[in-house]
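pasting for ref
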Amino acid sequence: MGKVLLRLALCPALLGWGQTDISGERVRAHVKFLASDLLEGRGVGVRGGELATEYLAAQLAVAGAKPAGVNGSWFQPVALVGVHTQPGSQLKAGAIDFQLLTDFVGTAPTQIAQEAFEADAVFVGHGISAPEFGWDDYADVNVKGKTVVLFTGEPPSEDPAFFGGRALTYYGRWTYKYEQALRQGAVAAIILHTTPTAGYGWEVVRNSWGREEFAVKRSGDALAFAGWLSQEAAGRLANAAGGKTVDELLRLADTRGFRAFAMGVKIGGKIISKVRDIATRNVAGIVHGSDTAVAAEAVIYSAHWDHLGINDRAEGDRIYNGAVDNATGCGMLLEIARAWAEAKVKPRRSALFVFMAAEESGLRGSEYYVRQPLIPLGQTSLVLNFDSYFPFGRVKDVVLTGAERTTFWAQIQDVARRYELTISPDPRPEQGSFFRSDHFPFAKAGVPAFSVNGGSTFVANAEASATRLKEYGVQSYHQPSDEYRDDWDFSNMEYLARFGAALGQEAANADALVRLLPVETKPVTLAKAKAGKKKAKRAARGRRK
């Protein structure tokens, strides 16, 4: 690291721009406060979330940014509806009763207090209709008015031309499953959980879905129920549907030529919900650019401020403090804002710093921003998102999934070289991380956007740090144990904040706006699909543990 700091010291553009003022200790102070019990897990629509947004606005002002919200304020109001499934909600499959939280979780997207349904169950595999890949799980079946049962994920592949190879496409995301089920006319959609297909254990699903969910106010048709069954409960359902197992259903879903089939059982439910209107908000501050010709254009830095709040039904520690996820990203953004504001020579374009609401409920704050942008999307050069950083020491690499799809890729590589950072591929492409953070709604709308993620190759104590990284995923992700500790090492957050600041500076000073590169998607012919069948089967065996 000494060589890099010396190189930065000898580089007038970087030194004069103020990046050496980015401090890991100031990031620590922000994280310690934002992850404290006082903020009650930064839940949306409750006191803790309001305190968090007030703090972020105050700190942006201290950093030297200017208000960029609505009517000259620091805030962009985001109107949502909160739907919290209540005890007493029922889900049944024939004679099988499922227990809330233990066996199933879910919500009523209709956003009404009492929702009831009963319909024949149809197993639709992965629930995908992808003509460009020659795959349609809804072919030759009418699921209108039915309950569809399906897995997350998508057919396994090692071929980049077939569902992106190992990398999960949007077809594999649970959000797509419910969207497609609704388009097909289903009344309800239930995902069968397994850890390999979902990418996380049942406890993560239960903690995420067993609380109040937030969505924009419904303005059209909606599923009566969108939920999950635990693997154990899914096994009971599979057995009732012809004596099958979950593994057998998954093998069928992974097989080319799969056809949906009736499960021979009705699934019904009575979903009792507490429904309320929620007024939450994104927080936004701006540092104006120095070139009047392009100062109306901007680089956006984003991080979500919310976490899971308080679980009133839990025993013991009930507060989901969200220290790593995502007090760390918020602290880093505040430091980058300070660097921009204190720079003696400002970059040409402006920098907009947006702290997004309700990311944990499906990227709601960033989706709202994209629909109602504070700076027109056509004048937005690049979105750099910061989400979840680990306090286990400096890393040698970064993961910038999606950056290669932009006209900025060469400059990104150059900045990484200056910081002696290797750009590593996504270590778990099958998890679909690109679709799971606040940059995605921007990318979906055609704006160059990606998350700046730390890698997993550590500068020192590599083995011990890698072990702690894995332990966090198993023990603390979306758990009350994601708490701040005084022995945390913030050197990596400081360094990656400097790297992110440099990326933004390059984009802000570029001759032209960054743009997405065109992506060519060619349909998979039947002949090519058949040729890849054996490879897909081998991949399926490799992906299931």
